[in-house]
Amino acid sequence: MSEEFKIEIVNPEKSFLIKEDVTEVVVPAFEGEMGILKDHISIISFLKPGVIKILSKSGNEDYYVEDGIVEFKNNNLSILTSSILNLTDLDKSKLQNLIKLAEEESSKPEIDDQSRYIADQKVEVLKSIN
Amino acid sequence: MASLDDLKKRIASVKSTQKITKAMKMVAAAKLRRAQESAEKGRPYSEKMNNIILNLSNGISDKENAPKLLSGTGQEKTHLCVVMTSDRGLCGGFNSNIIKKAKSYFSKILDEGKEFKIITVGSKGNDQLKRVYGDKIIENISFKESKNSNYFDADKVGKMVIKKFEAGEFDICTIFYNQFKNVITQIPQAQQIIPLNNEGEESSSDESYEFEPDEDEILSNLLPKNISTQIFKAMLENSASEQGSRMSAMDNATRNAGEMVDKLTIEYNRSRQAAITKELIEIISGAESL
Questions:
Q1: pLDDT in tens, A87-123
Q2: A73–chain B nearest CA distance, Å
Q3: Domains plus CATH for chain B?
Q4: Which DSSP letter does residue A109 get?
Q5: pTM tops 0.80, yes or no
Q6: B-chain residues near A7 (CB < 8 A)
Q7: Which ipTM score applies to this complex?
Q8: Which residues contact residue B224 at a Cβ distance below 8 angstroms, ignoring those fewer than 6 apart?
């Protein structure tokens, strides 16, 4: 038996990525990082800002996401997200820009606790990428 | 009868109008292809989102405490109508079809003795509605600056709708847009997005999921996103419909202009010949009298 499963990442504009030969995916689920292997139980969870690590036969890929929903069923992993970036595309200036945006957001006085938590998460993750 | 010069001028003006409509048709055709493509590309997202929500809402144990976005406020007093139209004219019946649909919905609500508020997206809808329902329009949004419909814009509308919902400004929200069927047919749609209307749809599988964190929390996180997604879907359908509608309208206009040129040309030639004949008769009768 092969140890591979299928991953599909979609954002509102298009199907972002489809890969059939994935062996492991690590997603930043809301309650902590979650590694998904083949034959994982069906699960629905949502994401916090973080890095999705995709390990596959054809090479590993890392993506930065800010939010999203992940669904795993019948060895199909679907990730719905409105903001996703390939880490290799993320150069210094873009990164700085994102950090600045996130910091601005978290320093706004009127946002609620959850949004502040998410904004802080963004800052932390982005800085660790750097 | 119009003089030869006048006819000539009219033919020239109709021809230049035809050139414009022809160019607009070409542009609309090119844009249509792109809009259609992005509408198709956007479909998996909204379908998956719908599926997940369906699975979640079936799995939810405590229906009474379900998020309000799903179950409603328990009242049906105030309706919010989001009327989505284009920012540009010259696209056939595209805008009026949406407005017609919305107006019949408004009168239905008024007959039932309920209230309604309007948010218009796109300036053409605002132009048409503000004459009659000016006092009902609470918000007017237009995305003239953005070239293509993007999710960011939809999210802005979605967040505004949710904010108003949480402030208790309305109980039921319906969006109006044109669904793209093909180039000649666009179907005006009224879709209820708050509370979510899932009845009649069966979940694709009975399989139970594991949820992390629990269903309620995921749902309350997901539902606002779904609103934006639905609005985005409507925007994509709308922009494809707009271009399709414009294309067929401009095609018609080009054809009509062609017919008009033909008719005017015949008239021009006839009167030219008549003038020649008249001159000949004058010369001949002049010669005969000598």
A1: 888 778 888 888 888 888 778 777 777 777 888 888 8
A2: 8
A3: 22-249 (3.40.1380.10)
A4: T
A5: yes
A6: none
A7: 0.80
A8: B69, B158, B159, B162
